[in-house]
Structures are given as structure tokens and as C-alpha cells.
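help with this:

***
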Amino acid sequence: MQSKKTNLLMLFTNSALAICLAVWLPACGGTDEVGTEGGACREDGSCDPGLKCNADNICEAGLFTKIFRSPAFQRCANCHAPGADGFVVGVTEATQNWSTQKTAWQTLQGKASGMTGNQADCNGVAFLGNTPETSLLAAALDEDIRAGYVNGNCTSDNISDMTLKIQGDPTSQELNLLKEWITKGAPE
């Protein structure tokens, strides 16, 4: 009789545990969607676009996804997107398109253009260098990098302080993400 009670108790306990896990785990932000953020990586080690497979075989946001989602970088589209209210011909750099993550990454692979006056010296300069200190993008957002930036005739005197345009300095976390991303070769 004792073993029948034990078996019933174990069956009840296991059933209760299964029900609790089925209700509790989704509330923790986990997902069973393979390849999606928070879900397991696919068998080939891939995840949905913008995500990467981490050491625990879980899909997580890549560096550029984190940058693009951040508040400071979300404001880039206010000027750098087709039809953006803040776009001013001759003043706003003309090739950037931050309307989607994919177009933001793609256009960052190019060079600055469309600027006139003092800023014209930065036309033709790549947005991304091999280091944050050689990247026009980082110089436009980081005062310390901007102060020492030199790329031909494009110097700190020619670079717009984008922190004024995005209504404040990016956080140190946002700048560190940007620097890490550039240092790692600016992966998509």
C-alpha cells in the first residue's frame, strides 16, 4: 500500500511540476520558438536576422541590433530616412537611411555625401573605420573621439555634433556598444 501511495504522490508531484513549468516559463520571457530572440538556436547554429547564437545555444540580439534599438540611435531616423522631417538638403548627410535596421547597417558601409560648406570636407569619408577613433560615425557622436579626429581634410572642425540633433548625448552604454561593434568589424 505504501508504494501505491508513493506512486500516486510522485505522479501528482510530477503533474503539478509540469503544469507550473508550462505556466511559469513563458512568463519569464523565454520562448520555445527556435531561431527567435530568447529561443534555441537552429540546428545549423543560425538565428533570425539581427540575432546571434550565444555559447548557451540561445539566440540573442547582436551588437548592431542592440545599437539600432537603443533610444539615441532610434532618433537617427528623424533626419536620416527618406522623407524625414529633420532632413535638410546640404546640411544633413544624404546617404544614411535609418528607417530600418537593414538599411541603417547597409548605408553605414558607405561614405558621407551631400554636405556643403564647412562640412563638405567630410564628403567621401567612410562612416566606419577600423577603430572607433577612425570612424566618422563615432566622431559625430562621441566628443572625445571628435576632438582628435582627422581624416584628410575632415577634422573635428568639420564634423557636426550629432548629440545636439538627437537631443542629448548617447548614454555611455550606447557609446560602448558602438565602439565594441566597430572594433569587432561592424558585423550585421
